[in-house]
Amino acid sequence: MYSAIAGGNGNRIQTYVLNSTIGGGEGNTIQSKCIYATVPGGKSNSAAGYFSFAAGYRAKAMHDGTFVWADDTDADHASTGDNQFLHPCERRRATIPWNQPLLRQPDPSDVEPL
After folding, report:
1. Rounded to an integer, what distance in angstroms lies between the CA atom of residue 13 and that of residue 11?
2. Which residues are bridge partners to 5 per DSSP?
3. Are 77 and 70 spatial neighbours (Cβ–Cβ below 8 Å)?
4. 10 Å Cβ neighbour count for 33?
5. 92-97 vs 77-78, strand pairing mode
6. Which positions ≥6 away from 97 have C-beta within 8 Å?
7. Overall number of domains in the chain
8. For residue 89, what are the domain limits?
9. Cβ contacts of residue 54 below 8 Å, gap of 6+?
């Protein structure tokens, strides 16, 4: 029933958040009414979904079960639905639903230009 901020600067956990953690970094947030969310560090990341994970720079895990890992591009990298794995890849965003095998060649429809 507890949440924690281990270190960093300007990090915040909002109200009604359970069992969530910010490891460090700067300007990271776990949004209200969120459980089991993690921001391990980085800068300007936000986790808002149940069981969400946001890491890097400006990663926004806004939906339940999402994992967003962002690079240093000066733009938000945000989830668009539940149960996504997102990461920038040569200035493209790959979206792979959790219920599909990860060891497969991505379908071109999984990748959209930024």
Report:
1. 7
2. 22
3. yes
4. 11
5. unpaired
6. 83, 84
7. 1
8. 4-113
9. 28, 37, 38, 39, 42, 45, 46, 47, 60, 61, 68, 70
Nearest-CA neighbor of 93 among 78, 82, 74, 72? Answer: 78
- CA atoms lying within 13 Å on the CB side of residue 78: 8
The one-letter amino acid at 41: G
Question: Under 8 Å CB-to-CB from 108, ≥6 apart: which residues?
Answer: none
Count CB-CB contacts under 10 A for residue 66.
29
Pair of tokens at residue 92: 């493209």
What would the pLDDT profile of 46-105 be if each residue is shown by its tens digit? 999 999 999 999 999 999 999 999 988 899 999 999 999 888 655 555 555 554 544 555
This prediction has a pTM of: 0.78
The predicted-structure confidence for 6-16, as pLDDT tens digits, reads as follows 999 999 999 99
CA 87 – CA 16 distance, rounded (Å): 28
